Amino acid sequence: MINPDARNKDRLTIRVDHERKQHATAIAESMGTDLPNLVNMFLAQLITENGMPFKPTNDKVMTELDEALADVKAGRVKTFTSADDLFNHIHQLENTADDQDL
Q1: Contact (CB, 8 A) for 37 and 28
Q2: CA 58/CA 11 separation, integer angstroms
Q3: pTM for the full predicted model
Q4: What family does the database annotate (predicted)?
């Protein structure tokens, strides 16, 4: 008997680096799923988003902005009561950097 779920399904064959596949398989299994299910989830989200379901970037500025936002959300920030306090802090940082260059 033919599996009724298999009637309208296509097979997708891709080539992937062996180590990448092993690593991805281990992660998928740790999440209680497998690679085919994750690929199907990716495709479903691709359709839902009408584009990439994540933001691929190699932009250093965006990475730094994301890190800065994470610092703010985690409370790893310094606040100032005046512009003078801010500029004094910046000068202290510059002096510290200059001392480290020596």
Answers
A1: yes
A2: 32
A3: 0.49
A4: Belongs to the RelB/DinJ antitoxin family.
- Dist. CA 57–CA 66, nearest whole Å: 11
Closest CA to 13 of 29, 46, 41, 35: 35
Is residue 55 assigned to a domain? no
CA pair distance 62, 35, nearest whole angstrom = 29
End-to-end CA distance of the chain: 78
Q: For residue range 68-99, what is the model confidence (pLDDT) as tens digits?
A: 999 999 999 888 999 999 999 999 998 887 77
Task: Give the dihedral sign, CA 59/61/65/70.
Answer: positive
Q: Are 34 and 24 in contact (CB under 8 A)?
A: no
pLDDT digits (tens, 9 = 90+) for 46-69: 999 999 888 766 677 778 888 899
- The answer as to whether 21 is a domain residue is yes
